Amino acid sequence: MLANLRERELKLAVNATFIVPDLIDPALGVLELRDLPELDLVSTYHDTPDLRLARAGVTLRYRTGDQGGPVWTLKLRVAGSDASVRDELTFPGEPGAIPVAALDLVTALSRACALEPVATLRTRRRRWLLCGGAERELAELVDDEVTVLDGEEVRARFRELELESRGPDLDQLIPIAERLQLAGAVLAEPVPKVVRAMGPRAAAPADLAPVEVQPSDPAGRAVQAAIAAGAIRLTQNDPATRLGEAEPLHQMRVATRRMRSDLRTFAPLVDPAWASGLAEELGWLGGCLGAVRDLDVQIAQLEALADDLRPDLGPIFDPLGEQRETARSALMRELRSSRYTALLDRLVNASRVPSLTAAAEAPVEEALPPLLHTAWRRLARQARTVTPDDPDERYHAVRILAKRARYAAEAIGPVLAGGGKRELLFGAGAAALQDLLGSLQDAVIGADLIHQHAAGSDDPRFSMAAGRLYEREQLVRARARAGYLDLWRRLARRGARLSGGA
């Protein structure tokens, strides 16, 4: 891979007679306009036969004509943003062979389906660099005349402008876009060129799309929505996880946990054998992700507490780093396995047609609240009996039930009439308790880890540093246990309101 950039651009549609206006204006922040060399680009886009990448807002192309030479480019959607913001990754390679690294990053979309050339576009590109003075680059404006080719035959032509940021937020480029609009341009949806070229088939919904649920809908639709949401979360974070980022890996693990929890919450609505099989595979993937994530948490927790002690704690941190690399290598093997792609196919199918029972035909408002009450009662039975003298394992058991109750509230609350305000407040309270008990569990694991490494050490500097770090972990543990009762009482009040005070 050559580079990884975040592309931020505005698109504007123009007709064949459009003339780019003078944009040098202090009111726009543009003090200089530099001509850039004109380019003649030929792009061959690759996708599955059913255009899974394009439908998900992702493009993979091989392009000639760039100043740096031919290159493969993969553009990925950024979670929480529309297509005006995308991550752009470039790879060296020959025109007929998609780089393995690029194929790896689209696995969550293509799954087991092979990619093939689906469109060829020739673009005459005129370019200008907009500067704010003192070598301050604002944006690059490109004027693209695009020809869609089918072999040597011309299928279609269109023209568009792109205003790509060279630093400022897109909001700061809006005045420039408005000046272009005054000249006749029209602000357009941030649709990739290949989608415009391929037409409605490329603009169809993605394999995984959010499912809207109304209170009067059959409860089975809420099951469908929960699976779709989890699968979207999983697949959106897959590429960045492969690139080594920690937070996306965490989000993938959360996705597996939520879907397993949702299957448990919706148990009366789903076929038991179907749900059990899906939960088993999600558990397998969650375990692979957790092997890395748990080490990330342990290392971060210890580093946050170590601070001034870090130089003397190599005997703890060095092995943890090695373990993480081993666990990540194992995870990557599984993410490249047929078992993983089979699970993704299974999730796509489950988001469309989950295997439901007759109970799933009841309306959302009737069928779902009792399921949340069940999760709440399971939590309450354990949580209300915990005492300050109980072992850490009892607190951890409550944490697991609090997490399940939280996920149940977050799956059920938003689909109820009025947005489920009570349910979501309860979910927030369960999340707070879960977080507190999570810090307790992390401290317990951290203290055990320190004790294991410090036992028998003959290095006085390490032993002293490890002893101080152990004391800090024990302080975190004590504070978490001390804060338990207050958070539990708050959550208990919210739980009682779920059933009107029962």
Topology:
Layout lengths: L2 E11 L18 E16 L4 H4 L3 E6 L6 E7 L7 E7 L8 H6 L1 H4 L5 E16 L5 E14 L2 E13 L8 H9 L3 E3 L4 H6 L21 H17 L1 H5 L3 H20 L6 H35 L7 H22 L2 H15 L11 H20 L8 H21 L8 H34 L5 H39 L4
Antiparallel strand pairs: 1-5, 1-8, 1-9, 2-3, 2-6, 3-4, 4-5, 6-7, 7-8
Helix pairs in contact: 6-8, 6-11, 8-9, 8-13, 9-10, 9-11, 9-14, 12-13, 12-15, 13-14, 14-15
- Tell me the major beta sheet: 8 strands, antiparallel, barrel
Beta-strand residue percentage: 15-25%
Poorly predicted ranges (pLDDT <50, ≥5 residues)?
none
Structural class: alpha+beta
Number of helices: 15
CATH architectural name of the largest domain: Beta Barrel
Compute the CA-based radius of gyration: 27 Å
Which percent range fits the helix content?
A: 40-55%
How far apart lie the N and C ends?
59 Å
The fourth-level CATH homologous superfamily of the largest domain is Hypothetical Protein Pfu-838710-001
The fold-level CATH name of the largest domain is Hypothetical Protein Pfu-838710-001
- Biggest sheet strand order reads 1-5-4-3-2-6-7-8
Annotation, overall tally of beta strands? 9
Q: What's the overall average pLDDT, rounded?
A: 95
Total individual domains: 3
User: What series of H and E elements makes up the topology?
Assistant: EEHEEEHHEEEHEHHHHHHHHHHH
CATH class of the largest domain: Mainly Beta
Overall 3D shape = globular
